[in-house]
Amino acid sequence: MPIEPPELHRQTLAAQGMGRVALPYRDVVPPIHVSTTYERAADGAFPGGRTYSRADNPSYDQAEALVASLEGAASALLFSSGQSAAGAVFQALAPGDGVLAPRYMYWALRKWLLEYAAPWGLAVDFYDNASVDDLAAKTRSRQPRLIWIETPANPTWEITDIAAAAAIAREVGALVAVDSTAATPLITRPLELGAHIVMHSATKYLNGHSDVIAGVLATASDDKLWQRIRYVRASGGAVLGPMEAWLLLRGMRTLHLRVGAACANAQAIAQHFHGHPKLLDVLYPGLKTHPGHAIAARQMHGAFGGMMSLRLKVGEDAAKSFAAKLRVFKRATSLGSVESLAEHRASVEGPGTLCPPDLVRLSIGVEHVDDLIADIEQALA
């Protein structure tokens, strides 16, 4: 999958959907290819280069090429969801391989690791997201095949030093995969920091309109592991529909505008409510008081993301009451879209959650920041 000429800025590549036109009509907007099967030649070959849409589809090409370009990757693969994309990385490993994952991470993936991957045969253990020392000690003692990183980490937004983790991984020959959903490739490029694979729940910022479920992986090297991941996608059927791939590409064309607006709003909201008398804490890496701010400033370029969490002083009841009183924020699960969302995360995750019960997660959208601030103020009051 060729990378576009380096003289073009990523903003230009995204806005133009890689700047490609479709033959023979020279369409500026790419067509949707809905065929599930492709004709063989008389000798049994596939002259069109496609075999069956469970393995690949032309509708994926432009979106995958754009993600690869944004991440500086050798190749990218679309999946039916972020969960299936992440799962494919672990399924490409062998039974008995060790995996280190962060203590705070996407809850559904953590549950899947414990309830599926571990019984299947992976040796799963967890490390402290923000502690390089803890990661180093566990890496050296357990000799994992894969280190999984999520930064900023949902829903506490702790920061993991990707470059430091990659250096630790090299000591034992481990692979590093990074869930960079909350950062987006506009803010953090994990492959440049030493990661082997980067994952996005493309449902979130990449699509950005709450109308597509999708996932994507990008790799630094088209190696044996990547071919194994490609096989996992094809054999398991975790493929995206052509319409969803088309919608994803359309969403990515406004990625810079949406992410820029959300990050600016989030920074303003975090600064406004930092030290509020009814809040125990504002969890946002853009605040200088955040424990991971210095690392975030080093590996997140120009912004600190659109996600934050508020912890209410009085506790769980206050947090639930606050969420219920929001009017502009919609009470819904998900993040990274144009509309602002809020949820009492511990209730959503249910029994076994590690999320503090006084925490409300906020996905900051692109609305006018004064309206968002006023909504939070009235809900706190």
What do these coordinates show?
Helix content is 37%, strand content 15%. It is α/β, with parallel strands linked by helices and 381 residues long. The chain has two domains: 10-252, Type I PLP-dependent aspartate aminotransferase-like (Major domain) (Aspartate Aminotransferase, domain 2); 255-380, Aspartate Aminotransferase, domain 1 (Alpha-Beta Complex), CATH 3.90.1150.10. The strands form two sheets. A seven-stranded mixed β-sheet has the order 1-7-6-5-4-2-3, with helices on both faces. Strands 8-9-12-11-10 form a five-stranded mixed β-sheet. Helix 4 (107-120) links the parallel strand 2 and strand 3. Helix 3 crosses helix 7, helix 5 runs parallel beside helix 6 and helix 11 (316-325) packs across helix 13. The termini are far apart.
Order of helices and strands: HHEHEHEHEHEEEHHHEHEHEEHEH
Assign the CATH class of the largest domain.
Alpha Beta
- Reported by name, the CATH topology of the largest domain is Aspartate Aminotransferase, domain 2
Tell me the strand percentage band.
5-15%
Please give the largest β-sheet.
7 strands, mixed
Overall shape: globular
Strand order of the largest sheet: 1-7-6-5-4-2-3
CATH architecture of the largest domain: 3-Layer(aba) Sandwich
For the residues shown, what is the average pLDDT? 95
